[in-house]
Amino acid sequence: MASIQHTGRGYRAQVYVGGQRDSKLFRLKREAEAWAYQREKELRAGKAGGDKTLGDTLKRYADEISPTHRGERWETIRIAAFLADPTFPAAKRLTDLVPDDIGAWRDARMKQVSTSTIRREISLVSSALESARREWRWIDTNPARDVRKPREPEHREVLITLSQTRIMLRTMGYQPGRCRSVGQAVACAFLFALRTGMRAGEICKLKWDDLRDGHLIVTGDEIGAGKTGRRFVPTLHHTERIIEAMRGWDEVYVFGLKSATLDALFRKYRARAGLSGFTFHDTRHTAATRLAGRVDVLTLCKIFGWRNPKRAMTYYNPTPEQIRQQLIAGQSRQLESVRRR
C-alpha cells in the first residue's frame, strides 16, 4: 500500500508490497503521488511477473488456457503467428506495455487482414493479458482493454444456390446410397448442413449415440461440440436418408471427418468445380433462410441454438418476393378460416 505524509521538508511517499518497502521525499504532493504509483507498480511486477514479456504471456496462455477452449487449434496457430510477426510487441515487458504498443500492431495488421480477423486477434491478446492480471498476478491492469477495435463488419448475406449445390455434389462424386469415399462423405456433410443448419464442427463431432427417433442431440461441454450448448435438431426424411448413407463409414462418428479436413476438402472441391464466393459456413445461413419461411422465429432460435432472437435476423434474409408470398399465403388462410365459420 502507498501512503503520502506531509513533513516539514515536503511530502514523503511510502510504499509497501509483499514485504518490500521503499520511500522518497518530494517537494510537491503530486510528485509524491506519481512516484508512489509507479514504484508500487514496479514492486508488484518484480514480485510476480518480473521481466515477463507479452510473448511469455501468450506462450503460457497457449499451454494452460487454450486447451480448455473449443477454439484451441485456432488460438495456438494464431499465437504462433503473433510470436513470428515482427510488428507484434512480443518482446515488450509487461511493465512497459501500453495500449499504444498494441494499437501500432493493430494498424499494421489492418493493411493485411480483414476487420473481423483484427477484432478476433485483439480479443485473444486481451484474454491472455486478462489471465496475466487475474490469475497469474503479473500485471495490475490490462492495457488491451483501452485498445479500440475496428468497427464490426456487416454480416455475410451469402446464400448457396441450388445450381451451386448440384455442381458441388457432382464434383464430390455424390451418389444416393451408401457412402464409399471421402469425397462422398464431404458431400453428405455438405447436404446435412444445408438441411439442418449445423456448423461444420458440430457435424464432425456428431456421434451415433447422439441420434434419437426424430431428432439428434447437439451437446456442449467445456471444449464443446456445440458452440451454443446442448440443443435438439429435428431430423426429417431427407436428413435421415443422409444419416443412413453414412452407416458403416465410422464406428463412433456419423461422418468420420475432422473439422480441418472437412474445411480443406470443401475448399478443394469448390475450386475444382470452378466456383467461389461461398464457404461451408454459408450452409448455415442458407438453411436458416429456407427454414425461416416454415417456422416461427422462436422455433428457429431453438433449432439453431440462438439465445437471443436478434440472431435470427442475421441469417434470415428473405427476398421481397418471398415476403410477398408469405403475406399472400397468410391472407388466403385467413379468408379460408372466415368462410368456414
Would you give an account of this structure?
The strands form two sheets. A three-stranded antiparallel beta sheet has the order 1-2-3, with helices on one face. A three-stranded antiparallel beta sheet has the order 4-5-6. With about 350 residues, the protein is mainly α. Strand 2 and strand 3 form a beta hairpin. The protein has 14 helices and six strands. It is elongated, with a radius of gyration of 28 Å. Helix 2 (about 55-65) packs across helix 5 (about 115-135) and helix 7 packs antiparallel against helix 9 (about 235-245).
Topology:
Elements: E1 2-7, E2 10-17, E3 20-26, H1 29-47, H2 54-64, H3 72-84, H4 99-109, H5 115-134, H6 162-171, H7 182-196, H8 200-204, E4 211-212, E5 215-218, E6 231-234, H9 237-245, H10 259-272, H11 282-292, H12 297-304, H13 310-315, H14 320-340
Antiparallel strand pairs: 1-2, 2-3, 4-5, 5-6
Helix pairs in contact: 2-3, 2-5, 7-9, 7-11
Quickly list its features.
341 residues, three-stranded antiparallel sheet, mainly alpha
What's the overall geometry? elongated
Rg, Cα atoms, Å = 28 Å
Largest beta-sheet characterization: 3 strands, antiparallel
What is the structural class? mainly alpha
- SSE string, helices as H and strands as E: EEEHHHHHHHHEEEHHHHHH
**Percent of residues in helices:** 40-55%
Helical stretch count?
14
List unreliable stretches of 5+ residues: 221-226
Summarize the structure.
The protein is built from 14 helices and 6 strands. With 341 residues, the chain is mainly alpha-helical. The longest helix has 21 residues, at 320-340.
